[in-house]
Amino acid sequence: MLRTVVCRAGSGLLKHSRQTVPVLWGSRAQQRWASSLPVNTVVLFVPQQEAWVVERMGRFHRILEPGLNFLIPILDRVKYVQSLKEIVIDVPEQSAVSLDNVTLQIDGVLYLRILDPFKASYGVEDPEYAVTQLAQTTMRSELGKLTLDKVFRERESLNANMVHSINQASDEWGIRCLRYEIKDIHVPPRVKESMQMQVEAERKKRATVLESEGTREAAINVAEGRKQAQILASEGQKAEQINRAAGEANAVLAKAEAKAKAIRLLSEALTRQNGNAAASLTVAEQYVSAFSNLAKESNTILLPSNTGDISSMVTQAMAIYGSLSKTPSTTDSVTPETKELTLEANTVSETETNYDLSLILG
């Protein structure tokens, strides 16, 4: 008798446990395959990642775990079969109005999982359909808070808000929404054209700004180049003037030293024997040379009254020289420093005297 019951139970299990029928939900075009309700055959094998809800005499009794399970015929009946796998639901396309009154056509994909088979069985009539409708209404509510530009820029935050809102409502149903992804966002043709025009205008603006920045940088570089060139040129002129002034100073010093040396040699020569005669001869030669150059550079000539009396001119020059030569004899009793200063003064005086003589003879 027992063997006959087990055989009948095994045949019933093979006949009914793996039969599947399409279950419609959401929309007619969308189907999801799930195991049909198994018949109580005393011995039941529950597949992995499935939860079978058992009622005893119409009241919830327990949830069968995957593997071998035993039920009492007639009293126990499998009422619901819940899949514990992650479920992917395609949310149908719907229309929504953004904050700036733009009508959008949007659809998405919802990923969820049943955490509590008891709540999913007795908390809502059709949990998947309820979650789908909740996702559609939540999406319309979230889109109404954003403008069109922010909808495209803040997709991640929009998806996060969707998941948070769905989980708050589906917690009583034993369902956990894992993530929500927006697939497509369709805008009206006119809005799309205006968006394309806006993008083109933005790109033109960027190009104009970049071109102006390039022109500004080029002008700045040119101005900096000119500034550096002027600075370098002024520094070059400064160095040139310094070098020229140093050269002129050195030339003046060299000329003064040469003239001082010449005057010193001349004074030494005059102190020797027959020095006055030599000076007279030199004055006479310069006088004759000056007269030889008359009327070569100008037609106007100023001549002294005694032009032909060379001896009187020489005598006058020698008298001036004699009056100047008497002053050094009084410097013997002074200190060496005073002698040096007196010598320099005599040198200057002799220079002026020679200059005056040249003017007279000239």
From TrEMBL:
Main location: mitochondrion
SMART domains in UniProt: PHB
InterPro entries: Band7/mec-2_domain, Band_7, Band_7/SPFH_dom_sf, STML2-like_C, Stomatin_HflK_fam
Organismal lineage: Eukaryota, Metazoa, Chordata, Craniata, Vertebrata
Membrane-topology descriptor: Lipid-anchor
Domain Band positions: 41-199
Signal sequence region: none
Function according to Swiss-Prot or TrEMBL: Mitochondrial protein that probably regulates the biogenesis and the activity of mitochondria. Stimulates cardiolipin biosynthesis, binds cardiolipin-enriched membranes where it recruits and stabilizes some proteins including prohibitin and may therefore act in the organization of functional microdomains in mitochondrial membranes. Through regulation of the mitochondrial function may play a role into several biological processes including cell migration, cell proliferation, T-cell activation, calcium homeostasis and cellular response to stress.
Subcellular location: Mitochondrion inner membrane
Keywords: Coiled coil, Mitochondrion
Coiled-coil features, chain-numbered ranges: 239-273
GO (cellular component) term, any one: mitochondrial inner membrane
Identification of the protein by name: Stomatin-like protein 2, mitochondrial
Keyword Ribosomal protein appears in the UniProt entry: no
BP GO annotations: mitochondrion organization
One Pfam short name: Band_7_C
Similarity comment: family membership: Belongs to the band 7/mec-2 family.
Superkingdom, natural source: Eukaryota
